[in-house]
Amino acid sequence: MVADAAPSQLAAAPSRAPVGLQIRAWLARRAESIAIPVAAALAGFALFGLFLACLGKSPFQLIDIVYRGGFGSSFALGNSLQRAAPLLFAALCVALPARLGLVVIGGEGAIILGGIAAAAAAQPLASLPAALAIPLMACAAAVVGAVWIGAVGWLQAYRGVNATISSLLLSYIAIAISNHLIEGPLRDPTSLNKPSTLPIGDAFMLSPMPWIGVHWGLGCGVVACIVAYVLMDRTTLGFAARIAGGNVRAAQIQGLPVGRLIVGFTALGGAFAALAGFFEVVAVQGTANGTLAAGYGYTGILVAFLGRQNPLAIVPVAVLLGGIEASSGLIQRRMQLPDATVLVFEGLLFLVVLLSETLYGRFKIFSPHLWAEKRETASASAVSVAA
Amino acid sequence: MGVIYVGPKDDYGYNQAHAEAAKALKAMSGVEVTEEERVPETNAVEKTMESMINLDGATLLLPTSFGYYNPYLLSEAKKNPKIQFRHCGGLWTDKDPKNAGSYFGYIAQGQYLNGITAAYASKSKKIGFVAAKPIPQVLNNINAFLLGAQSVDPNITCQVIFTGEWSLAVKEAEATNALIDGGADVVTCHVDSPKVVVETAARRGAFVCGYHVDQSPLAPQKYLTGAEWNWLPIYKSFAEAMLAGKVPEHFVRGGLSDGYVKMSPYGPGVSDAARKNADAVKAEMLKGGFQIIKGPLKDNAGKEILPSGKAYAEKAVELESTNYLVSGVKGSV
Amino acid sequence: MSDGLGIWTVLLAVVGGAIRVSTPFLFVSLGETITERSGRINLGLEGTLVFGAMSAYATAVMSGSPWAGVAVAGLAGGAFGLLHGYVCQLPRVNDVAIGIALMLFGSGLAFFLGKPFIQPSAPPLPAIPFGFWSDLPQVQAALRVNVLFLVGAALSVFLWWAFRNTKAGLIVRVAGDSADAARAMGYDVDRIRLYATGAGGVLAGIGGAYLSLYYPGSWNEGISSGQGLMAVALVIFARWNPLACFGAALLFGGAGALGPALQSVGVSQGYYLYYAAPYVLTLALLILTSSPNRALAGAPGELSLSK
Lengths: 387, 333, 307
Fold this sequence. Notes:
- The complex is a heterotrimer.
- Chain A is mainly α.
- Chain A is 75% helix and 0% strand.
- Chain A has a single domain (58-336), classed as ABC transporter involved in vitamin B12 uptake, BtuC (Orthogonal Bundle).
- By secondary structure, chain B is an alpha/beta fold.
- Chain B folds into two domains: 2-105, Rossmann fold, CATH 3.40.50.2300; 108-226 and 263-286, Response regulator (Rossmann fold), CATH 3.40.50.
- Chain B has nine helices and 18 strands.
- In chain B, strand 1, helix 1 and strand 2 (34-36) form a beta-alpha-beta unit.
- The radius of gyration of chain B is 20 Å and the shape is globular.
- Chain B starts with a strand and ends with a strand.
- By secondary structure, chain C is an all-alpha fold.
- Helices cover 69% and strands 2% of the residues of chain C.
- Chain C has helices at 6-37, 45-63, 66-88, 95-114, 137-142, 147-165, 167-177, 179-184, 189-213, 227-237, 242-264, 271-275, 277-289; strands at 127-129, 144-146.
- Chain C has a two-stranded antiparallel sheet.
- The radius of gyration of chain C is 20 Å and the shape is globular.
- The relative contact order of chain C is 0.22.
- Chains in contact: A-B, A-C, B-C.
- Chains A and C meet through helix 6, helix 7, helix 12 and helix 14 of A and helix 4, helix 10, helix 12 and helix 13 of C.
- Chain B: Residues 2-276 form the ABC transporter substrate-binding protein PnrA-like domain.
- Chain B: It comes from Methylobacterium gnaphalii.
- Chain B: Keywords: Signal.
- Chain B: InterPro entries: ABC-Purine-Binding, PnrA-like.
- Chain B: It holds the Pfam family Bmp.
């Protein structure tokens, strides 16, 4: 994809240069990949402020509200982090297959079915101790999710069915199946006006993480992102996947098992997405019901693309999104604006951030070559002086 | 006080009925209303409640959607013992926290009156119901609609179609068309925004009964009447209790006689006879204790619900767990 | 109505449903076909559809003319399309991601501006009663065909013809199959794609107008329920062929009518599974017609989705 061209050149340049220069070049690149999105986010804020000003509202109040509602206090930060937790998993379901060039937009289905699988597994496991039962429930969810999204990969690799459309269709089918199960075979007969599965029981409920007060989905989600990063950027498997994603024919000529890579990475993505549903059940609801279809899967697509399919970048992007959603309430209540305001805000912000990708490499100040060359000429002149 | 809605405030339906009451409350002196719309039934609503308590200083919270109660409202009520929570839906029992409570209206009475006007307007003797999900609330409404119609003509049947979601415009329109294609000539519904059903039915030339709020402007000729919520008396009583430093009632439920449910004005399609009959039944309901479900009554699979001589009056708890459709309703739970 | 009519009722409902429900799918998928044929993908047409629905309804309420609404929806949709087309020609900007952001922005803006128009009634678009020959009201109702449906049908034939036989169609296809070839022929690929995305937006906006001004024929925030996204997916199903888009839209609309129709004749168990019929059917057909050896036939070579 986009990132391919630049790093290969960069990798070539610093290898000839001394360590100090390598670090400089690395820093310059990092500075670029932080400065540009931050500047873009600020520009997005400014644009939305303009929109508000046109409506006669104060743009400065907006900054105050997003700060106070999303990040300014431990309560606000907890609120943001809680909303970010399921997005981490959902975004991985997009980012992992993306390495292989697949655009998977049906993570929602895996989340819902994962939640149902976890809740359904709790019944036969009821006699086991929680320390054993909860991981087994997580496994049940992960297996269902892996099969669901893995099927998308399998269809693409072995039947030639486009992953984007099959994952979207499968997510609608998953919603129908889950509604059928929740209101039919799996329904708890005492769940009257909100059809749900049988509760998993308090013993199987996870308590929140210490200090932060957010459920364990956040901690596990961050770990999952790190694991995914290591897998994709630090292992041969991830490297093979990237080659296959870049050029299928080349990968096949190299003898890489492209089909199995596709199935494996989509299945892993599905398993992660299903864990979002699992945590929704064991840490939040205590039962599976229609609320599992809360749209995390779709928001996850956005998070993954904003994070440029990099698992580590998913974490801050998800927190930012969580913060904006968290401040949505205050935007409504303090500024007397309708709920749709936050959608406009998010849309504008992301448009600008995505647009800013075009700026990479445009500013000389961030160019590692510039830094490396400058130094080289400097040292060259130093040499000549010495001579 | 803080009011929380699951959908947009102006959906011309369920949420709007609440929002209208909340708006009227803003005029009361000493009452400050803070509102948040489109809050999903996830742990997001916990955070909304906490935020209203911590940042807005709300002391009374009114989360208006069913799914907010368990576990979200319960856990917040335990965390904030000084704050009062009143939930729309009738789920509170005395085992739950003492600072929580429920309120709801017997809107099935309105659907019963809808059924009476429908029976007079129907020529095919088939009426239709577009329903979201087969839950007790909805089933009570379907049963009441048909029983009201059968009180006029026992041969009337009612076809029901479930759309499966609370708000799904195209499916609601398709369901309305399917009902009318099946011969129904009066249609009503229980979905979050009845607008689509009302307009589609009127365009097909069928009569229609409204729900949640008054939709008569959408179909002035075809709109018979409608069952509407009137939350203002409840909200007012809550606010007055809070202002007086008292604990608002824990469990408030009522129907027409309490003023929590009201009817839209009759449309031109309602004949004089229908008007007279409906008014007479309404007067009966206003006395309180009206029985819609009374024996002998069978469900549509032939099983007995109630033997002769027994009945569920409006406040009967059994109505909270309805899981049947009465004889004459075509459809299954 | 006797029960003997049961099966006919269902069939009729499916035909009627296909005609009623398919139009938005048709317009959006035709629009997306033009865009994707030029080598770009615009996932944001869901947002364009919703904005089109809102702007059409609002215009019709204020002006009293539904056709003015259709025009405004088309213009607004075109503006969204041009925005997408312009932004995506900048280097390194990902068209899929921009589409998702535009989906959010379009729906958000539509909800935001559409609040005051939820209550008022707008004049609907006219329909032609092709069922006049029948005495059955069901037949008459099923065959009330909206003008936009006919326009869409004609358009799919025209586009099918134009992609093969006109210079403009050929240029778009060349740009989509190989940007280098198009450049070698002296064409400005970015400009072609800009116009193609703009045209796609116009059609998606008109599809939205159909939603709010004819069927279901009202404006509220639940009007679309993902039709725009689904229509984009149908383009792949239809293999970028405008005629196949017409078939796919009809199929999808008809299958969607199956659930309510079956309930109305008494088949009421497991209706959620019937509601999944359009998706299951599409997936099954897709699997049957795909082949691992033959990479998507008809897929534009430059499309990021099909590489």
